[in-house]
Amino acid sequence: MAKLVECVPNFSEGRDKGKLDEIKKAIESVKGVKLLDIDPGEATNRTVFTFVGDPESIKEAAFRAIKRASEIIDMREHKGEHPRLGATDVVPFVPLEGVTMEDCVQIARELGERVGKELNIPVYLYEEAATTPERKSLSYVRKGEYEALPEKLKELKPDFGPDEYNDKIAKTGATIIGAREFLIAYNVNLNTKDKKLANEIALNIRENGRLKRDANGKVVKDSNGKSLRVPGTLKAVRAIGWYIDEYGIAQISINLLNYKITPLWKVYEEVRAQAEKLGLLVTGSEVVGLIPKEAIYEAGKYYLKKQGKTTGVPEKEIIDIAIKSLGLNSVAPFKADEKIIEYIIAKDSSESLLTNLTVKDFVDEVSIDSPAPGGGSVSAIAGALSSALSSMVASLSYNKKGYEDYRNEFISLGEKAQSVKDEFIKLIDEDTNAFNKFMAARKLPKKTEEEKAERAKALEEAAKYAAEIPLNILKTSVIALQLAERVSEIGNKNSISDAGVAGWLGRAAAEGAFLNVKINLPSINDGEFKKNLISEASKYLEDARKINQRISINVLKALEEE
C-alpha cells in the first residue's frame, strides 16, 4: 500500500500572486509531491495550500515552502481578517493512506526541529503533536496573534527555535506545526453585514461556547477562580463571525475538526436554526480548500432522505444534491473535480480510462485487432449493467404504492447496487491494465541469466495478477446476482423484466470472468496458486448459475401471472 500524507499549510499572504507563485514553486520542486489546491483569500490576506505525498517528500516540500515564505513575506506589513502568528501560520499533517497519526506526529516534530534550527523561526507544536495538553488547541497557541509575539515568547516558550524576540522574528513571526485529522474549513453566508450577529451564532454553535455570565453580565467562576463556560451546540467545531468585504456579507467561519463527529450537513442546519432565531437567513456556504468526498456524500444522502427520495442513486447525483442543498455555489463556483480530494488525486490517471469512452467508441475499441480491451473488460461491463438495472428496479419500487413494507430494503438494495456497479467500473480498466502488464513483462530483456530470472519473476507476478482480476469480477458478479434475485422477489412487478435482464447480465459477467481466469492459468508456474484459484473460481461460478436459475423462475412466474 502506498504511503500518502496530506499537508495543508496556511500562509499569511492572499493578495500578491507573485509571492504565492514563489511558494508554489518551492512545493513543486520536490519529487513525489502533488500540489492539489491553492485557495487564496483577499479579505483574510491568507492562502491555504494543499498537497499530498509520501512522508519524506511531504516533509521536505513543507520545509522549502516555509523557508520561501519566510524570505518573501514580511509580517510587519501584514493585515488581514484571519488570526495569524507568522508568515507560515500553521502547518498540519493529515494521514491519508498507509500512514498513522503517530507517523504524522513524527513528521511534524522532525520538521519543527529543522525549521527551528535552520531557519531560526520559533515553532509551536499543536494538536496531536502537542507537547502539553493546552497546546493541542490552535487558538491557545495563537492567542494574541502576531502582535503579542514578543511577550508570548517569554511566557509560552516555543518547542523549537529561538525564544527571544529579534528583528528576524519580527519579519517571519512564529510557525505552528502539528498533526490532526482532516479539518474542513467551511464558511456559512448570512443575509447581513453585521459581524456581531455572525459572531453571536458562532458562539452558540462552537464546542467551546462562550463565557458564562450572571444576571449583571459578570463572568461566573468556579471555586478555583477558573472562568466557567456555556458549551455550544456542536462537538468538534470551532467558529468565529466576521464580515467579508469581498462578498459584502457576514459569515460564520467554521473549522470542522472531525466531520465524522459533527457532519457538514448538521453544521449547516444548526447555523440555519440559530440564524432564524435572530431573524436572519442563511444564503449559502463555501468550502475553503479541499474536502473529503465522504463529507459531501453524506450531506447529499441527508438531503435526499429529507426529500423522501431514495439514496440508491449514482454518486454524482448525491454529490450534486449536496452542492445545491448547501448552497456551495453561492459566492464562487464549487467544482467537484477541483474541490473533492479523492477526485483530484484520481484526475491525472482518468484521462486514458476506457470508462471515459462513449459506448460507441468503447464497442469500436473492442472490435479491432488489439487484444485489449477484451473479454474480461466486457464481462465487467455486463456486471456493471446488471447492478445498474437492479438499482433501477429498487428506485422504481421505492415510492410505489403497495410496496411500502420494503421501502428501507429498497434503499439498502439501491445503495449496494450502486457500490457494486462502481466496483465493476473500476474492474473494466483493471482487467485491461492487467493484460498490458503481462505483455510488458514479456518484452523484458532476456540476454543474461540475471535478466532471464528477472523476466521470469515479472511474468509470474503479471500472470497471477491477470488471473486475479477476472476472479474479482466473478466474485462481484455473484453479489450482483444476489441483488438481482432480491429485486425479482420484492420489486415493482412492472419492472420484473428488468430484474430478469439483470440476472442474465450477471450470469454473463460470471461466465465470461471464469473463462478469463482459465485462459491465464497456463502462464502461471505456481501449482498451488493455480489449484486454489480454479477451485475458488469454480465455486463462484456454480453459485452464479444457481442464483441466475432462481431469478429466471421468479421472472417467468411473475410474467405468467400478468
Question: Approximately how much helix is present in the residues?
Answer: 40-55%
According to CATH, what is the class of the largest domain?
Mainly Alpha
CATH-assigned fold name of the largest domain? Four Helix Bundle (Hemerythrin (Met), subunit A)
* SS strand fraction: 5-15%
Number of domains: 3
Counting DSSP H or I runs of 4 or more residues, the number of helices is 18
Give the overall shape.
globular
Rg over CA atoms: 29 Å
Terminal CA distance: 53 Å
Total beta strands:
13
CATH architecture of the largest domain: Up-down Bundle
Residue-averaged pLDDT: 93
**CATH fourth-tier homologous superfamily of the largest domain:** Formiminotetrahydrofolate cyclodeaminase monomer, up-and-down helical bundle
- Low-pLDDT ranges: none
> Which structural class fits the helix and strand makeup?
alpha+beta
Task: Report the biggest beta sheet as strand number plus sense, adding barrel if it closes.
Answer: 7 strands, mixed
